Amino acid sequence: RHIHSEDVVDSTQKVAHRLVFEGASEGTIIIAEEQLSGRGRMDRKWHSPKYTGIWMSVILRPNLPPAKAPQLTLITAVAVVQAIEEMTGMTPEIKWPNDILLNGKKVTGILTEMQADADRIQSIIIGIGINVNQQLEDYPEELRPIATSLAIEYGKKLERAELIKVLLVKLEKLYSLYLDQGFYPIKLLWESYAISIGKNITARTITGSISGQALGITDDGVLMIEDSHGIVHHVYSADIEL
Ligand code: BTN
User: Fold this and answer.
1) How far is the CA of 146 from the centre of ligand 1 (A)?
2) Whose CA is nearest to atom 9 of ligand 1?
3) Measured from the CA of 13, which atom of ligand 1 is nearest?
4) Is the beta carbon of 130 within 6 A of some atom in ligand 1?
5) Burial of 181 (0-12, 13-18, 19+ CB in 10 A)
6) pLDDT digits (tens, 9 = 90+) for 56-106
7) Is 109 near ligand 1, meaning CB less than 6 Å away?
8) Measured at the alpha carbon of residue 41, what is the angle toward residues 36 and 43, in degrees to the nearest 5?
9) Ligand 1 centroid – CA 40 distance (Å)
10) Cα(226) to centroid of ligand 1, in Å?
């Protein structure tokens, strides 16, 4: 596999898009020490200061229909949880679809971008941002109540290179398990780490909000919420409030 290791980039997602365009193969990875304009979901910025976190994009080219793309985000979330667990002994929680929390604060975000035609995924770029060695004072004021890092929660700094290694091993294992046996085994793992299942939540989508009980995810990785009338809604993309 190819690993592109960069010092400063605007966004590893952007670099990955360029590499995809140039024909990069499955498993190509882009890692940067710093991102000048790291991107999050919903057009948000992702704070990516130098030498403190893991800012990485992974290119996959699964031979699958586009509707399966959300599953790859969920696979990645499970891989990150397992890697953090192995490195620290702490078990983070997953907030659907892709926030990873420690003690209720965000430690990792995942951003999945896909190029596809009507029936096949051409490529999928999975961006992973892990806050590793930041201290609270490294965060801008407005992020302090909601963001954390592994070092803050664990009490000491971690070797980023080691965490990257562990993460890539986990990701590769889960991805082959998925290609081999489908989504079901991943879904069980994912649900075992998810916080919102069984709880009352509000999902804010671009078209409005849905409140109700989170029932779980479908086999495609879509969130199911049952409202107070017993109607089950399928949510493809939203922000969740607990
Ligand atoms: C989110 O929670 O909104 C997703 C954040 C994703 C951040 C990562 S860092 C590496 C990759 N490059 C980016 O610009 N964004 C993703």
Assistant:
1) 16
2) 129
3) 12
4) no
5) exposed
6) 999 999 999 998 999 999 999 999 999 999 999 999 999 988 899 999 999
7) yes
8) 65
9) 5
10) 30
Q: State the complex-level ipTM.
A: 0.99
pLDDT single digits (tens) 110-158: 999 999 999 999 999 999 999 999 999 999 999 999 999 999 999 999 9
Q: Which atom of ligand 1 is nearest to the CA of 42?
A: 3
Q: pLDDT tens digits for 198-222?
A: 899 999 988 899 999 999 998 888 8
Q: What is the DSSP letter of 37?
A: S
Burial-class residue 169 by CB neighbours within 10 Å (0-12, 13-18, 19+).
middle
What's residue 1's pLDDT?
62
Backbone angles phi and psi of 76, in degrees to 5: -65, -40
Ligand 1 centroid to residue 228 C-alpha, Å: 34
Domains along the sequence of the chain with CATH: 3-193 (3.30.930.10), 200-241 (2.30.30.100)
Cα 153 to Cα 69, 89, 156, 188, 241: the distances in Å are: 31, 11, 8, 26, 22
pLDDT digits 0-9 by tens, 155-181? 999 999 999 999 999 999 999 999 999
| Geometric angle at alpha carbon 113, from 107 and 114, rounded to 5° | 150
Nearest CA to ligand 1 atom 7: 129
Cβ 52 under 6 angstroms from ligand 1 = no
